[in-house]
Design goal:
The protein is α/β, with parallel strands linked by helices and 475 residues long. 44% of the residues lie in helices and 20% in strands. The protein folds into three domains: 3-62; 68-301, Endonuclease, Chain A, CATH 3.30.870; 312-474, Endonuclease Chain A (Endonuclease, Chain A), CATH 3.30.870.10. Helix 7 runs parallel beside helix 8, helix 11 packs parallel to helix 12 (339-350) and helix 13 crosses helix 18 (459-469). A 15-stranded mixed β-sheet has the order 4-3-2-5-6-8-1-9-18-16-15-10-12-13-19, sandwiched between helices. A two-stranded parallel ribbon has the order 7-14. The chain has a two-stranded parallel ribbon with strand order 11-17. The protein is globular. The chain has 18 helices and 19 strands. Its EC number is 2.7.8.-.
Length: 475
């Protein structure tokens, strides 16, 4: 071999490496990616940039969350409910929403349970006193999960109550999101840990090889005390939610207090999250209780996330919209759904269903507002009525169909919530609750968005909005 042959050997070696990398990545994509556009995009990137594309795919293209969930899923069964097909409520519920009840039961493997009392709470002013009282009254356990948990005045009150509960022998577990409650600094996490309260940060790591997880967030807001009273919805923990105190940037929201058999499903959900983050399995009656009937509501928890629960909240909404006969009301802080939900809402409007989407006049994330403006025209074309809510910014996430079925919780109507975040919602077959929430949504229809509002934007604004729309999955 002469010196002159070395460049040719190097070129041959690089060609082989390029072929191996592209082929290996392409085969993995073909076998694992369900979304055609995503698959084509990743393959294209790897063909154009074999080395860099492979590195990017290994870091950001592989759903390691689902792989981790498969390892943990066996431990999830210790407190599962009976198979959803055996639920008496699934069998006995008849009428318009019977197909929905059956479908969600099969989808979630959770039964519908009756005998619940569900209380609607508005803003931190209405919800925080009940939540703090539940922590105060706890004798055995407190499980708390929050996307945002601030170390401000109201956050400090929660911290002190949790520390006091821990000191009197209550088993306290607190889970905060690794992004929402501070990535580099998380005062709540460190304050609780210093006081001896078990606290974990969901999907948090400063290690470079774990950076892909920062795009996967636990957006759930759950509190369960003694396994018998629960809270869930859209409310984070922070002073901005105390609207009556006129904070600088007030956030209005809707939360729910649960009592009855459905609380066990709520406790199961937060226990799974804790196990996912810490590998500690929570067991025993202090966390999971069998409840007698406390009210008239029939309800079920629906979880979603990029693990074993992928897209279950979206599928539930799609099926409910399909069954709508008269009205669909949606209230959400951010409206950037994918093509499936957009199409279903448009089709519902075209077949004569009155579809109302209620969104803030201005949210707390301007790029989301820009993207929404570029994405919403097809719904207006179909006859969907889109309404703006006047300030303060309303963070409620509510869906009501035909004033009979409700779907509430933590999930926004955007691709991040429906595909990337860990979310939790509650479906209820409770006419009284549905009518109350429907009236609440209707009261917030302050100004209707029209084609004229979209058309009067100048070209630069339209270009800005269209550009923001390209980043919908990451906003």
């Amino acid at each position: 071999m002469t010196f002159d042959t070395l460049p040719h050997l190097s070129l041959l070696t690089l060609t082989i490496i390029r072929f191996v990398l592209v082929t290996g990545v392409a085969l993995h994509i073909l076998l694992t990616k369900r979304n055609t556009s995503s698959a084509i995009g990743w393959i294209g990137i790897c063909i154009l940039m074999p080395v860099l594309g492979t590195v990017l795919y290994v870091m950001f293209g592989i759903n390691r969350v689902r792989r981790l969930a498969k390892k943990l899923v066996r431990g999830r069964s210790s407190h599962r409910f009976e198979d959803s097909h055996s639920s008496s409520w699934n069998r006995e519920l008849d009428g318009q929403f019977a197909p929905l009840a059956l479908m969600v039961g099969k989808l979630t493997s959770r039964p519908l349970v009756g005998g619940n009392t569900i209380t609607t709470l508005h803003d931190g002013d209405g919800a925080y006193p009940h939540m703090l009282q539940a922590i105060d009254n706890a004798e055995h356990s407190v499980l708390l999960c929050s996307y945002i948990f601030r170390n401000d005045q109201i956050g400090g009150e929660f911290i002190e109550k949790l520390i006091a509960a821990q000191k009197r022998g209550v088993q306290v577990r607190v889970l905060v999101d690794g992004i929402g409650s501070g990535y580099f600094l998380s005062p709540v996490y460190h304050r609780l840990r210093r006081a001896g309260v078990p606290c974990a940060r969901f999907m948090h790591s400063l290690l470079p090889w774990r950076m892909p997880f920062i795009n996967l967030r636990n957006h759930r807001k759950i509190l369960v005390a003694d396994g018998k009273i629960g809270f869930m919805g859209g409310l984070n923990i922070g002073d901005e939610n105390l609207v009556s105190r006129n904070p600088p940037s007030p956030v209005s929201d809707t939360h729910f207090m649960l009592e009855g058999p459905v609380v066990k499903q709520l406790a199961e959900a937060i226990a799974w999250d804790w196990s996912f983050a810490t590998q500690e399995t929570l067991e025993g009656d202090i966390y999971f209780k069998e409840h007698k009937s406390t009210g008239e509501s029939v309800a079920r928890i629906v979880t979603a996330g990029p693990d074993t629960d992928l897209e279950k909240i979206e599928y539930t909404m799609l099926q409910a919209a399909t069954l709508a006969r008269r009205q669909i009301r949606l209230m959400t802080p951010y409206f950037l759904p994918g093509s499936r939900l957009m199409a279903e809402l448009g089709l519902a409007a075209l077949r004569g269903v009155q579809v109302d989407v209620v969104i803030p006049l201005r949210s707390n994330h301007l790029p989301l507002d820009w993207a929404c403006a570029a994405n919403i025209a097809p719904l207006l074309d179909s006859g969907v009525r889109v309404w703006w809510v006047n300030p303060p910014f309303n963070h409620s996430k509510l869906m009501v169909v035909d004033r009979a079925w409700s779907f509430v919780g933590s999930s926004n109507l955007d691709i991040r919530s429906l595909r990337l975040n860990f979310e939790i919602n509650l479906e209820t077959y409770d006419v009284v609750m549905a009518e109350t929430l429907d009236d609440f949504i209707c009261r917030h229809r302050n100004r209707r968005l029209t084609h004229h509002d979209l058309d009067k934007r100048n070209k630069l604004i339209q270009i800005r909005d269209a550009t923001a729309r390209l980043f919908m999955p990451y906003l």
